[in-house]
Structure formats: C-alpha cells, structure tokens
Amino acid sequence: MSYLDIAPWRLLIVLGLLLVSALFVSRRAKLGLAKDLIVGAVRAALQLLAVGYFLLVLFQHQRAEWVFLVLTVMLAVAAWTSARRVDSGPATKVLVSRSLLAIAAGSALALVPVFAFVVAPTPWFDARYLIPISGMIVANAMNVVAQVNERIFASAKNDRAEIEQWLALGATAKQALGRQARGALRAALIPTINGLLTVGLVSLPGMMTGQIVSGVAPEHAIRYQIVIMYQLVIVAAVSGGTAAYLARRMLFTAREQLREL
Amino acid sequence: MTAPAAPCLEARDLVVRFGARAVLDGIDLGVRAGEVAVIDGPSGGGKSTLLRALAMLQALARGELSLDGAPAASTTPSAYRVHVGYVPQAPIMFAGTVADNVRAGPRLRGIELTDERVAELLSRVAMAPPDAQRNAPDLSGGEKQRVALARALANEPRVILLDEPTSALDPDSASDILDRIRRCADDGCAVVVVTHLREHADALGGTRYTCEGGRLHRRAET
Question: Using the beta-carbon criterion (under 8 Å), do A169 and B88 form an inter-chain contact?
C-alpha cells in the first residue's frame, strides 16, 4: 500500500485557504461567523491531532478494556450532544438517558452482527476496525435521535389541541401522536436514505475515499462502503424508532394524558 | 315510586392543581342518562378544566371518575373516552373532508361509517349531505363546532361534554344547536354543557351548577 504523506506544514495552506475564503464570505455577507469559523478550524485540527495520537497509542497496545472505554465515551458524548440539541421538550438531563438508550440500541444492532459475521477482525476487539466504524455509526445515531426528539417534542407542543382531540375521540397515545411521530421519523431518516440513493453518483463517501487514497483497491473499498451504508440505515431506523417510542412514553401519562413539557 | 337512576357519569372529589394552585378543589358531580347539566361561572373559575378532567384529558391530583358505576381506572383511557365524548370551545378539524372528520373516531377502531350514517350525523347538527365533501379546515368557526359535535356523536357516546358550544354561532344558529343538544339528552345521552351565557343556560334547562374558585355549587331551581 502506498500513499502520499501530507507534511504538517502543508496543512497550513488549507487552513489559510479556509480562513481567507470563509472570512471573506462572512464579512461580505455580514454573517458574523468569523469567530466561530476561526475557533472551529483550530478546534477541529487540535481534536483530530489528539485523536490521531490517541489512536496511535491504542493501536500499539491492543486491549479490550481500552477499546470498550473508548466506545463508552463515544456513546456518552453522543447521548449528551443529542439531548442538548433539543430545544423544546424535557430538560437535557432528563432526555440524556433516553437518548443513550436509543443510540445504544441502534448501534448495538448495527455493529455487533457485522463485527461477528461480516468484518470479523482478529482479535475481535481490534481497535483499528472497531473504533472508526463504530464512530460513524454512533454519529449517525446521534444525529437521527436529536432530529427525532427535536421534531417530535416541538410538534407535540404545536399540535397539542389536535392530539387531545384525537385522544378525546378514543385514540390511544400511539394513534393520537401518530402523525407527529411519523413526520419526525421520516424527516430524520431522509438524509440517510438520500445517502443510499446518491452514493457514488454525487460523491464518494469518506471511508471509501480514505481507503482508496491509502492504496486499497476500489473493489475492496466498495465492499466496506456497502457494509457501512447498510449499517447507517439500520442504526437510523432502530435508534430513530426507539427515540420516537421513548419520546411518546415521556409525552403521555399512564392514563394517556398529554403532559405539559 | 321508583328510586332515581344512578348517575351515568360520576366524579368524586376531583382535584386538579397547576403548580401549587388548586384549579379544581374537590368537585363532586353526577349526571344521569337523559340529564343535561349546565355549568356556568366566571372566567378562570375552573369550568373548562372540569370538562377536561371529566374527559380524562387532565391529570388529577386526587379524585376518581366512574362510568355507569364502574371506576374509570378499571378500563383503558381510550375505551372510557369513546363513551365520554368531548368537544372543546375551539375544535380543531383534522386534515381532510367533513366526512373524514365525522368518520375519525369509529375509524380508530376499524369501523367505517357509511355515507348514509355520515349524512344522518351531519343532519343532527343542521348540516346538509353536500357539506360532507367540504374541506374541514376551511369551515367557519360555527361550522367547525357543529362538525366537532357530529364527530363526537359518531362514537355513540353515553356522555357528551360540550365547552361553550355556541361561542362561534349567531343567535339563531345558537338557539338551533341548543335545541339539538337538548335532543341528545332526550335520546338518552348524559350531557354536560359549559356556558357563560345565562340565556343559553336557561334555554338548555336541566340541572344548573356554578363553578367558581375551583368549587362546584348546585344552584337552586328557578
């Protein structure tokens, strides 16, 4: 395998380009995003630098408990970030446990069978496979769960009168919230489904690009990418569905009365 | 002499709190089949909350509801609400036609009403068969109240709870709808109506109550 190494100083060329172009647009359009752009660019570089060295150490000292620790931190950060993104609805500290459950349920279903029967690394906890692939899956779950929660709690608030009329007609909580739950789940799944439909036509996905640049033959790289794409759909469907179910449990009392959240 | 019929809907010691404030403060009410209970009282006195509580849409801090002598807790909320219809003051129309709205309740349980049954329900609220195909969200406020009443009646409820059913109607239409509400009771329904208009309360007759400060007082016969 051969690839072109990027000398660290060459990164500054791209950073310079980013700052000049983005700051120019921000100033001209009066977006007021200059500070965010600078902080974001520097933070991304520092975070990736730290992760790079951390992974280096992890790969050199393959230990199951370290890999599990990383996966746990990944899930916790994803749950917290996802819960924090929800404006209307329960407080972050209430929502975080539900987000964790939804993200973990979908991630487990998307990851465990694949690592057991499809990719099957040796040793089974090989960080080189578990960490990056889990990262992609958990990140998708995080986004889907945040979107489902944001939309379902916002529409439950806006459509309160409609939901109560359905209840008054004898609808169960599931029936009364049906339109809102379907809308939230559909909206959250669309980006993943669009990804399936356009993959390879609009862009080559990150993992496949990375493998090809590193010298992996495209016919091998696409197999990984197909697995990842399917995993992204599995995690989106399961985590999204679980999040919608848990949101409904939070929205209604045991007597199927719509709570004020 | 026969004993008076047992209440169809009975509420005992209902307490609803919003924070520390008791919006309903120990309310007892019994309504028999064929009876109209009319509740008036000042704004903020708890009338609408009482109707919501009777419809089991409002969480209770204390108290219990029973339907035909059976505690509401012994059945599912949806089964209870099929028997206890509720029409709020400003009903929301679901997307679709008037007929879709009238069919909504039975459809939840897999029952599809015939066109004749829809027309019959609409005639009970003084709407004509062609109205069935109109787009429900486009109706006027008064028409929405009528369709909401027909929608509630489609479930063939034992009890019907109406919050200010004449608020969006002109005087002639109001008098007509009050007459039709009265007929629901004559057909054997227990009816509870909240209204702030004395003349409408008088037109309905029935048992009169005043809800004030979260308490319900039965008024002396006039």
Answer: no
